[in-house]
Amino acid sequence: MKWLLAAALLTAANGAALADPKLVEIASFGEHPALNQVAEGFKARMAELGYVEGKDVTYGFQHANFDRSLVPQILQQVEAKHPALILAITTGLNQAAVRGITDKSIPVVFGAVVDPVVAGIVPDWQHGSAWSSGASMLPDFDASFDYLKKVLPGVKKVGTLFNPGEDNDTSNMELIHKAAAKAGIEVVGVPVDNPNDLPQRVQTFAGQVDAIFLIQSNVVQTSVPVVAQVAQRIKLPLFNSVYAPDLKDQLAGFHAISYRKNGEHAADIADRILKGEKPADIAPYVPKAEDFDAYVSPKGLAGVGLTVPEALKDSPWLLK
Question: Which PANTHER family does the record cross-reference, listed alphabetically (predicted)?
Fold first, then answer.
């Protein structure tokens, strides 16, 4: 009888262990509305896939407050919890994870990474690494310039800001120059590696370009209100590759990839890994047309002395 009781208890214990929810740790470079959308989209899609929070999965969240010196510490804290999977948000944080997370049995799914191949996170666009795959945010600058030509017929020169020390920004700049050449538009890139320098750098666009289009750059995206203030002062329409509803009256418009959808696509990959697929067998997700949104702000255009073109007066792009 004793051995039967012991077997029953062991079976019950094993059942309880199997029922324990999987821990997914979310590590982000910082708290920002766009980056938060990646995490929110991820969790929402996981719920759609059947992962009930508290029952099937639990989430942890750590961020480095946009301080590079804190990233190794954040990653150590995440690894110490021995999660079933890590969602790592932004290019720099994923690059640090490649070097800093020593337990390669913990799979890492990336989000908010423009080009994971150039960043050295995965070997190519057809495969993940042995322990990582995810959803890229590769921009479609061909579509962005088509959009700009509709909003600003006759646009010839476009200014943008970038951090030369970020692989994310380097990839963006290579892609935007290629697309600009095809569109017959000249891109004027101004480097900036410190947010405090943004007002002065934006000022250099005065009289030099027809519009400003912001790429997915961490140093710029965390300070868009500052860029918007200067752009309005020098009467240049400002467009962003990240949609920010609270700035819809200050910016002329957006041709933006959805950070929430990026998180959803990352969740699809996380689901496959949690169900047993190897990250190396999962190709990184490349954004499709439906992952981008186009908006035009009548108030933002009016703020720099422009109006919505007649051809767009009834467009679904118009912001109210």
Answer: ABC TRANSPORTER, SUBSTRATE-BINDING LIPOPROTEIN (PTHR35271:SF1), ABC TRANSPORTER, SUBSTRATE-BINDING LIPOPROTEIN-RELATED (PTHR35271)
Cα separation, 91 vs 98, whole angstroms: 11
Q: Give the DSSP letter of residue 184.
A: T
**CB burial of residue 55 (10 Å; 0-12, 13-18, 19+):** exposed
Assign domain 2-137+259-288 to a CATH class. Answer: alpha beta
What confidence tier does 84 reach under pLDDT thresholds 50, 70, 90? Answer: very high
Domain ranges across the chain: 2-137+259-288, 141-257+292-312
- Read off the tokens for 61: 């969240």
Running DSSP on this structure, what letter comes out for residue 68? G
Q: Tell me the CATH class for 141-257+292-312.
A: alpha beta
pTM to 2 decimal places:
0.81
Is residue 167 within 8 A of residue 91, CB to CB? The reply is: yes
Beta bridge partner(s), residue 299: none
